[in-house]
Design goal:
Elements: H1 2-25, E1 29-33, E2 36-40, E3 50-57, E4 62-68, H2 82-93, E5 102-106, H3 111-124, E6 132-134, H4 141-145, H5 148-156, E7 163-172, E8 180-189, H6 209-223, E9 263-264
Parallel strand pairs: 4-5
Antiparallel strand pairs: 1-2, 2-3, 3-4, 5-8, 6-7, 7-8, 8-9
Helix pairs in contact: 1-2
Length: about 325
């Protein structure tokens, strides 16, 4: 029995290494931290931005697509699609793509989807930070089906979701606790309706907070690194002087409708500078504002880059 287990472990380890080399053989750079996988391509902005950031919670058969920039990567001989990358990562994790019970997307740079989500909350007469459960028979089902996230979900599974949940996450910086980034999250549940239980009842089926914090820290390091050659743009500091002496970050927003992200000041978050999922937020600080067109890859940190017209807003 012991030898059989050892052999199985060796085979699984070999398969994982093979799948890793498959991604890297196509010229991609893969960085893995536990079950979080971050992938760059030299063909996408010289490897400065992630093509994909995908995390897994194996015990819950859950996958979270934090970043999907595959459509922005130029066509080349070694290009991998989102489905190819996702399927490869599933194999590395020992998961079957068609057995996944949850597929989640962060909403980035998508003013239309954010507006649809805001309308759903408004029509239900609930707070914008409240969780929403949507059934196929609900009127709100179609607006979510029309989003790009439903299409992306269809690219990586043939399953049909039984429920859709709308939630949010508050990303915060360890270096600057005044910096809080709000994002909408869309959860597609493929479990039976009895298994997909809302937090309003007995708790969320899986916990991805640690993974999200790790992902956000990696993104932050990526955006503010000093790796760029001879460029002063990598030396970015965000303080009140950068915001024209403003005493608040209220006017400092992301790009393309900030994709669900709003950078708010300490004054907007209850409980001082300590920010967590239970924080109370001034509703006026999460308004969805006008878009700013650009060609950059989806990034929750774009607005902090000096080349962004929103990096130094007029206040």
């Amino acid at each position: 029995m012991k030898s059989s287990f050892s052999f199985l472990s060796t085979v699984l380890s070999f398969l994982g290494l093979y799948q890793t080399s498959l991604i890297e053989d196509h010229g991609y750079e893969l960085k893995t931290i536990d079950h979080l996988h971050m992938i760059r391509s030299p063909h996408l902005y010289d490897g400065r931005d992630y093509v994909n950031t995908i995390g897994f919670t194996p015990e819950a058969k859950a996958a979270t697509i934090y970043i999907a920039n595959n459509d922005l990567e130029p066509i080349h001989d070694d290009k991998l699609s989102l489905a190819q990358i996702y399927n490869t990562l599933c194999e590395m994790e020992g998961l079957e793509p068609e057995d996944m019970r949850w597929i989640t997307f962060d909403v980035i740079d998508d003013e239309e989807t954010n507006a649809a989500i805001a309308n759903i909350h408004e029509n239900r007469g609930i707070d914008r930070l409240d969780e929403v459960e949507i059934l196929p028979s609900d009127l709100e089902w179609d607006p979510i089906v029309r989003t790009k996230y439903y299409r992306l979900m269809q690219m990586i599974t043939t399953q049909l979701p039984q429920k859709i949940y709308l939630r949010h996450y508050l990303y915060s910086s360890d270096d600057n606790r005044e910096l809080v980034i709000f994002t909408n999250c869309i959860y597609f549940a493929f479990a039976s309706p009895d298994d997909a239980i809302s937090t309003a009842h007995s708790g969320w089926p899986f916990d991805d907070q640690d993974q999200r914090e790790t992902m956000f820290a990696e993104e932050q390091d990526n955006e503010f690194s000093d790796d760029s050659e001879g460029s002063e743009s990598s030396d970015v500091s965000v303080d009140h002087e950068d915001l024209g002496g403003s005493e608040s970050f209220d006017t400092f927003v992301g790009h393309e409708g900030h994709g669900g992200y709003k950078i708010v000041g300490e004054s907007d978050v209850g409980g001082g500078s300590e920010v967590d999922q239970g924080s109370e937020i001034d509703q006026g600080s999460i308004d969805f504002e006008g878009s700013q067109e650009n060609d950059e890859a989806n990034s929750r940190w774009f607005s902090l880059r000096p080349e962004s017209p929103l990096a130094h807003p007029q206040v």
